[in-house]
Amino acid sequence: MPSRREKKVRAWLLTMGFTLSYGAMFSKIWRVHKLSTKAKTDHKRKYSWKLYFMIGMLLLLDVLILSAWQIIDPLQRKMEVFPLEDPEFKEEDIKIEPQLEHCESENNAVWLGILYGYKGLLLIFGIFLAYETRSVKIKHLNDSRLVGMSIYNVVVLCLITAPVTLVISSQTDATYAFVSLAIIVCSFLSMALIFVPKITELIRRPRERVDCRTLTDTITSREEEDRQQRLQRENEELRRQIMEREEQIRQATLALQERSAMRNLQLASTMGSGDRVRITVGQYTDLLAPKDITNDPTSDSGFITGTSMARSSRSDFEFSESYL
User: Fold this and answer.
1) What InterPro entries has UniProt attached to this entry (predicted)?
2) 41 close to 65: Cβ distance less than 8 angstroms
3) Beta partners for residue 279, in sequence order
4) What is the mean pLDDT of each run of 10 residues along the chain (324 residues)?
């Protein structure tokens, strides 16, 4: 029959063992979530001592709660007596009085409620962080999803084990077997989910072994990946528009060059065909003038001398009006 000291030790071991196992996964998933949400603004190096500090704070909280429990309302041995039963062999004139020893405090339900509430909040928050970081990737080895799956495993088993142990608390053998089996299965699955993929990867690629200390915290969240893809699409669209503008500019440049070449050819052909060139006077066009026009510096006349002008289509009267 276990003593009161052994009962206290069991309470401490169960509470702090849960904190050490689940707290490590919780601190890891919390760190991943923090890095994913601050990857754009916070580029400082993240140190591992912060993880140990978080686990230490969780352990300190457990120590405070358990210490207050043991000091204010310590555990006591209580005997539960059941009705008398007849022995298996009724030849003897005896009765059997079943007794069950409990190690409880006066307000045992209150203290259990405090512990279960505190651990339950950690479980709920862990599920939230695991869901938020389900698409987060870490360079080289990505174990954030595996840690999240381990958290799901712990939560499911805790939700099953805690109420069942309260129901079957009067059956010591069944309680011990159920709690022990739940602890073994939970620990085995968590370690298998986290370490088996890493060991398999190291076995498959022995030449590419990487020290765990060299793993960087460079992560890319789903939002950042979507943003990068969106920026890449916008970049491709802008590049396509730039290429279209460059093609339009090239075509416009070619058109201007062709037009300039045609104008030069027309001017050259006109000047080479005779002694007359086409000029424009005011609003009248298609006027022909000699190729060589000379001015008489000794003349006071405002008209050009030595020039014979002809028109191709308009009358002499209209031409004279333009000079009046």
Assistant:
1) GPCR3_GABA-B (IPR002455), GPCR_3_C (IPR017978)
2) no
3) 287
4) 68 88 86 71 59 89 90 83 79 79 82 89 88 67 73 88 84 86 90 84 68 44 69 90 92 89 82 52 46 48 45 46 44
